[in-house]
Write a structure and sequence with these properties.
The chain is an alpha+beta fold. It contains 25 helices and 13 strands. It has two domains: 280 residues, no CATH class; 413 residues, Up-down Bundle (Multidrug efflux transporter AcrB transmembrane fold), CATH 1.20.1640. The longest helix is centred in the first third of the chain and has 35 residues. The C terminus is likely disordered.
């Protein structure tokens, strides 16, 4: 016990080194191709992190003095937001027009509180006819407008999103208090960063402790032993601390996916503890003293615990094949936690029981009744094995068909439920103003200063026009509307000149004249590269999923190949595109890695069971429950996203645990105790059935608490884990024993008389004897 405490202390020090990283870019590895494309875009133009403040005038237009004055004031104050680099709004939009021979470029709205009625009407007409504003910073019905703040986070990698989000929330809250007639909404990528971290922290502070408490209560009720429950709780806590401590020593920062490490470690540590404890209690009820009961429990459970720990550890280490670094972090922390849970279960837990338990325990009538009930159930399985085999096989096939209904997809805004302001605000902005997902293109002219080439610009104009016809698109932002308007301005604001100029020199002069008129922070560097060889085009999309983003960009690539020169063809990039491809790649890579892990696990089981037959046979009960669980998901939820990587690994861990314990006890009865097949089935149910049942009930109840999370990856894990655990238990209690009987020595089975359920209750008292069985 002292050794275990000292080892734990080393890891606890590591746990203190854990930090939190809410930056959404933590999901991308350094060699991710979409990340490299996006960083190239940002290095060419400007960085893309932003905050978007939407302002709703409720049932009236925003074009009145009071509302415009609020927008004007908030626009100016937005420059005080930490790390802000650019602020764009309706009031500071750079409106250009001709005045004699002069080009005037000025804020669309100045001194809003002093505007005349005529000027208000003029401002409204300009704004609602301006392509760079409509469905971007002003809605078509003029009831909602927006302020976009670009943010440049420090290169140090410091996590500043929470600081920025807190500042903006306070700023907006002050305005909401002062102007209750308006409504304010906050969204943007900085808010996604912050909310993801808040979702993980909220669950770690609220739901995971609640889940832990429920598990303790249910486990205590099932075990009916205060000392056993307290010892198991200690094993669980120490295992979680070791897993988190290892993460701290590895330099891991907690993010959304890796925040689920504690409940996963808890799950597997609890299963190990229950198997050891129940065997101890069973032996003591049968008359063994505590030391002999502990020794017997370790003899029976050491091998299956080691096998299950090794195979589960292997399953989680397979997460290192994930394209998402936080999933790798999760796999590594859980793997260390699993190893710790094994050592604590076979060293610390028995040592505690040797101190806490009485020397002897009086045999309880309830224990005898439980054993008789279990024996009756196993007799039913044996007697009706053929019907059970056909029924479970047919049921598995039917349920598994639900997999064909599963759509691998992600909707990142809906990772959060309506209890999060970010979800509510984002949906309002998408429904009433503009799209939040964007696809970025860097369109190359092929030569320095090539953006002044009229032919190049016409290709850009056609591409922009094509995108505007796509149903998912709300706005296209590029240099084209600015150039066309400048051409009109220079020609006395004649609408006939609202087109791209035909002369390269004129285009260069117009752009230079316009840029010289712009203030600091509102230049064209976010749209034009340094040597003026390429320009940026940003497409805003409405409420779309990851699959939609990939499909839209694929259509765009096909259009570019058919309609523009080769040097203009550009892969779409941006945070939305990055996530869309990451989702697809990660799901595929993790499913492949998990399948590979299952094959490797089967080879391990062949070696552990010393039987090719049982090693290969274990593939069926290991795969079938996972497939059935996903089938249930397909019939009910249908869509599954990036968190599937965690669910698959967790499914493998839990299912393999149950299967290994069941087969190990059966083989122990056949080989060590020389029991015939039917009696070996009885023995297996008697020794492991209650442990599997208690583990299942405890975990299903516990994970049902996690399903209440407002953070979809965690709630999905709670729901899916409950389904997986339940299906695995049913399969192991019905299908697996029948399958083992079919594959076992049929001659010996035929010679043994089939015991009826009624006979099972009246068997002799030898099962309570001290014969070591």
């Amino acid at each position: 016990m002292l050794a275990m405490v000292l080892i734990t202390a080393v890891f606890v020090v590591g746990a203190s080194r854990l930090g939190v990283n809410t930056d959404i870019r933590v999901f991308f590895s350094e060699d991710n191709p979409q990340l490299l494309d996006f960083e190239a875009l940002e290095n060419t133009y400007t960085k893309n992190d932003n905050i978007f403040i939407a302002i709703s005038a409720k049932d009236k237009t925003v074009f009145n003095r009071d509302t415009l004055a609020v927008i004007e004031a908030l626009t100016k104050e937005s420059w005080t937001i930490p790390y802000s680099s650019r602020v764009d709004s309706l009031t500071n939009f750079k409106h250009s027009y001709a005045q004699g021979d002069e080009l005037i470029v000025e804020d669309l709205v100045r001194h809003a509180d002093r505007l005349s009625a005529e000027r208000l009407t003029e401002v409204e007409q300009i704004a609602l006819s301006e392509p760079l504003l409509i469905n971007r910073l002003i809605s078509e019905d003029a009831r909602v407008t927006g302020i976009n703040i670009d943010v440049i986070k420090p290169d140090s990698g410091e996590n500043v999103a929470p600081e920025i989000a807190d500042f903006v929330r306070q700023l907006v809250a002050d305005y909401q208090l002062r102007y209750p007639e308006l409504e304010f909404y906050l969204t943007g990528w900085i808010m996604i960063d912050s909310t993801m971290g808040e979702g993980a922290e909220r669950d770690m502070q609220d739901l995971i402790p609640a889940m832990f408490l429920v598990l303790i209560l249910v486990m205590g009720f099932c075990l009916k032993s205060v000392s056993g429950t307290l010892a198991a709780v200690l094993v669980i806590i120490l295992s979680m601390l070791v897993g988190l401590g290892a993460g701290g020593w590895m330099g891991i920062k907690i993010s959304g996916p890796s925040s689920t490490a504690p409940p996963i470690i808890l799950t597997l540590a609890l299963a190990d503890s229950i198997h050891v404890l129940l065997t101890i209690f069973q032996r003591m009820y049968q008359g063994d003293n505590r030391y002999r009961a502990i020794i017997t429990s370790l003899k029976i459970n050491m091998r299956p615990l080691f096998i299950t720990s090794a195979t589960t550890l292997l399953g989680f280490l397979s997460m290192n094949y994930s394209d998402v670094p936080p999933f790798r972090d999760l796999g590594n922390m859980v793997a260390v936690g699993i190893a710790a849970a094994f050592f604590y279960s076979v060293m610390l837990l028995p040592a505690l029981m040797a101190v806490l338990l009485p020397k002897h325990m009086v045999a309880k009538e309830k224990a005898k009744r439980d054993t008789a009930l279990v024996r009756r159930f196993s007799a039913v399985v044996i007697q009706y094995r053929q019907g059970i085999m056909w029924f479970t096989t047919a049921l598995a096939l039917v349920i598994s068909l639900g997999i064909y209904r599963i759509e691998l997809n992600d909707d990142f805004i809906r990772y959060f439920d309506e209890s999060y302001d970010y979800r509510v605000d984002s949906e309002f902005v998408m429904d009433n103003l503009t799209g939040l997902y964007t696809i970025e293109y860097s369109l190359d002219s092929g030569q320095s200063k090539g953006i002044h080439d009229p032919d190049f610009l016409r290709h850009v104009e056609k591409f922009s026009a094509w995108y505007e016809t796509q149903p998912e698109v709300t706005h296209v932002n590029s240099l084209i509307p600015i150039l066309k308007k400048l051409n009109m301005n220079i020609n006395a604001d004649d609408p006939r000149y609202y087109r791209i100029p035909d002369d390269t020199n004129k285009i260069a002069q117009y752009l230079l004249l316009f840029e010289l008129s712009l203030p600091f922070g509102q230049d064209l560097n976010n749209q034009i590269n340094v040597d003026k060889s390429s320009l940026r085009m940003t497409v805003s999309l409405t409420d779309v999923t990851a699959n939609d983003v990939r499909a839209i960009d694929a259509r765009a690539q096909a259009w570019l190949k058919d309609n523009v020169p080769a040097h203009m063809i550009s892969e779409g990039t941006g945070l939305a595109v990055m996530y869309a491809h990451l989702s697809e790649r990660n799901i595929k890579s993790m499913l492949a890695a998990t399948f590979g892990a299952l094959v490797l696990i089967s080879f391990i089981l062949i070696f552990a069971f010393r039987s090719i037959k049982y090693g290969l046979m274990s593939l069926i009960p290991n795969l079938a429950p996972a497939i059935m669980a996903f089938g249930v998901w397909g019939f009910t939820m249908q869509t599954i996203g990036m968190p599937a990587a965690v669910l698959v690994s967790l499914a493998v861990g839990i299912i393999v645990d149950d299967t290994v314990h069941f087969i190990s006890k059966y083989l122990h009865a056949r080989r060590s105790l020389n029991k015939p097949p039917y009696e070996a089935i009885h023995y297996t149910f008697e020794t492991v059935g209650k442990a599997l049942l208690i583990t299942t009930v405890t975990l299903v109840v516990g994970f049902s608490v996690l399903s209440l999370s407002g953070y979809k990856p965690n709630s999905d894990m709670g729901i899916m884990t409950g389904i997986i655990i339940s299906v695995a238990l049913i399969f192991d209690f019905l299908f697996l024993p029948v399958l083992m009987l079919m594959l076992d020595d049929t001659k010996e089975a035929e010679e043994e008389s089939i015991e009826s359920p009624s006979q099972a209750v009246t068997e002799d008292k030898s099962i309570y004897s001290l014969e070591g069985n």
